[in-house]
Amino acid sequence: MALAGGRFVQALFKGLKGEKNVQCAYVASDAVPGVDYFSTPLELGPNGVEKILGYGELSEYEKQLLKEAIPELQKNISKGVKFIQE
Hints:
Layout: H1 2-16, E1 21-28, E2 37-45, E3 48-52, H2 60-85
Antiparallel strand pairs: 1-2, 2-3
């Protein structure tokens, strides 16, 4: 996780210097009904996160996997939000 965090920070600095790039991050999003946060590709640039790109089209198989993952995602998001609030 530390390596991923380091790479994201490097990409963010590059973006702030004007080098647009795409990185994935767990962000507030309405892309998935039932969860407030989801990991998705982001376009980074001089203004930080310039665009949330979304995850694109899913196959029926992928849609089913996502549907099955939502309860676990909801639990993890609630746990994270509670941690930050305390």
